[in-house]
Amino acid sequence: MILLLAGTSDARELAVTVQNEGYEVLATVVTDHAAEQLEAAGVRAHIGRLDAAQLARLAKANGARAIVDASHPFAEEASKNAMQAATEAGLPYIRYERQASSLAFGTVTFVDSYEEAAELAAEKGGVVMLTTGSKTLDIFAAKLLGRPDVRVIARMLPRKDNLEKCERLGFAQEQIVAMQGPFTKELDLALFRHFGVTLVITKESGKVGFVDEKLAAAEELGIETIVIRRPRLSYGTVYTDFAGVLEALKQQAPVSARSSLQVEKAGTSD
Q: What is the reported pTM?
């Protein structure tokens, strides 16, 4: 069995791909929606945030032969826990990370933290669109909300907990854009124009995270963008495609004939 941290849409695709190669997969996710998507594709899912010790116990209890960390590029704590769990359980650790964008745009400023991005936005003022998700929304709320020279628009997934967090932090409903991707350049252009955006804050989430489209739209409209760099962790070898992960599994945890038969039977059941 392969224990796979599946925090993104491409990670869920990877889980299905690995299982189709003859491995049994148990994917860890943090939302019911993600679990439902995996289970609809025939992949078992465990819901809930897990620390290193809990991941190690889960791996041992399910007879895992490797841990594949396909968490979000910015899920720094999840990756640290996965690496520690692999060490504790004596298992190979394999990192998959979506490919980075080229980000060859003249209006982009790079920063190393959410705090630095918030401080820079406070200096610049204007209409700021946050596309950094809800997890770090409190950092931006503390620096930007209530400033007379700043209007903040927060774009995030349309989830109840996100909206409740916005309410607690003091975001008015006209400051919230609750949408599910994919986001095209045309959609970003329309949103930026509608709100009169003068500054976009985003993360270097990679091509699958629609960063290129976002930056292209901002560039076309002459809008400045602040990009938060990815955390710098010592993962060892990082694979940016599914083929690399499959080859690593083949080398470090080759599928057994028994496992392959079990997956085949599971896939042909009525």
A: 0.67
